[in-house]
Specification:
This protein has about 300 residues and is α/β, with parallel strands linked by helices. The chain folds into 2 domains: about 230 residues, Metallo-dependent phosphatases (Purple Acid Phosphatase, chain A, domain 2, 4-Layer Sandwich); about 60 residues, no CATH class. It has a 5-stranded mixed β-sheet. The longest helix is centred in the first third of the chain and has 14 residues. It is globular, with a radius of gyration of 19 Å. The structure holds fe (ii) ion (2 copies). The site of one fe (ii) ion has 5 residues, from loops.
Length: about 300
């Protein structure tokens, strides 16, 4: 091929518009010819509308494909239920659902229509290159983990391409099975290399960085290049305050800041610990949404998350 394609792959922006901007600028400098966006564009970080503007601009100007993530599903389903969850309850202010509620309030009906129009799974044929299969979680579900657990290889065998590119795991990785590969593009907005641990976490190499992948065509095979991109993380952290998110979802915002500063993942540990602390104190097993804020604060403190920033 005379001018071989270079595909920029971006997953899991999670509302971090500063990280997205840095990745798109970097991809431009690297002369990306195609852009693949793998879902979870919104929720978590502040000002989701700034991410939507960047996506729409890319859609108008560049050769792009988009698939839907589970976070877009949350928004679509909530709207479909008339602003309610399946059980009829509404998202509440606080560290469990405050960030979801904030995001929902900042999206337009057009944004939700656009999410609905996106496929869960797509095949992209770029010129004469081997087709690229793409999804957020798995080809069947926006939440499919596909990290080698039961069902991963059966699902991969059904894919009509040798390479499946995905998001959702917030980590760079590549898995192979019978000549086929799964490449995870990491996360633009919330990269994680390991779970946060009780006590002070050591920052990882993903601290203050965005993750993305470039796909280069070498002969008849796509070759992934895993990239870490510096971005204006101070602005991202500051936006948690200026947007009101730090007030509406205090511990969640502090966890987001912790994730930005350390590159570690408190989201898989702190809420579960808050549930446990509340159960120990009250004898009642509650869902995250019903655990009082004090227990969230206590759990976050155990993991060295600064609540007084
Ligand atoms: Fe995600
Ligand atoms: Fe996801």
């Amino acid at each position: 091929m005379k001018n071989p394609p270079v595909v920029a792959v971006l997953a899991d922006v999670h509302g971090n518009s500063q990280a997205l901007k840095a990745c798109l600028d970097y991809a431009g400098r690297r002369r990306a010819t195609h852009y693949l966006f793998l879902g979870d564009y919104i929720t978590d970080h502040a000002y989701p509308q700034r991410v939507m503007e960047q996506l729409y601009k890319m859609e108008r100007r560049c050769n792009c494909r988009f698939v839907r993530g589970n976070r877009e599903d949350y928004m679509v389903n909530y709207q479909r239920n008339g602003g309610r969850q399946p059980d009829g309850s509404v998202w509440k202010e606080g560290s469990c659902q405050g960030a979801l509620l904030y995001c929902y309030e900042n999206l337009t009906p057009e944004d939700i229509r656009w999410f609905k129009s996106l496929p869960v799974y797509a095949l992209w044929q770029i010129g004469g290159a081997p087709p690229l299969a793409c999804c957020h979680g798995s080809p069947e579900s926006t939440k499919g983990p596909m990290r080698g657990q039961p069902g991963t290889w059966e699902s991969l065998e059904k894919v009509e391409a040798d390479l499946l590119v995905k998001g959702h795991n917030h980590k760079h990785f590549c898995l192979g099975y019978r000549g086929k590969r799964i490449v995870c593009a990491g996360s633009v907005g919330n990269p994680c290399c390991r779970r946060a641990r009780p006590g002070l976490s050591q920052p990882s190499e993903y601290a203050k960085m965005a993750q993305m992948v470039f796909l280069h065509l070498e002969g008849e095979r796509w070759k992934p290049e895993y990239a870490l991109v510096p971005y204006d993380w101070q602005e991202t952290v500051q936006n948690l305050r200026t947007s009101g998110l730090a007030r509406r979802a205090p511990v969640w915002a502090a966890m987001l800041r912790h994730n930005v500063l350390t590159g570690t993942d408190p989201f898989g540990s702190v809420p579960a610990r808050a549930v446990e602390l509340y159960r120990n104190a009250s004898g009642v097993e509650e869902d995250w949404a019903n655990v009082p804020e004090d227990y969230w604060r206590q759990a976050a403190g155990e993991f060295g998350i600064d609540l007084e920033w």
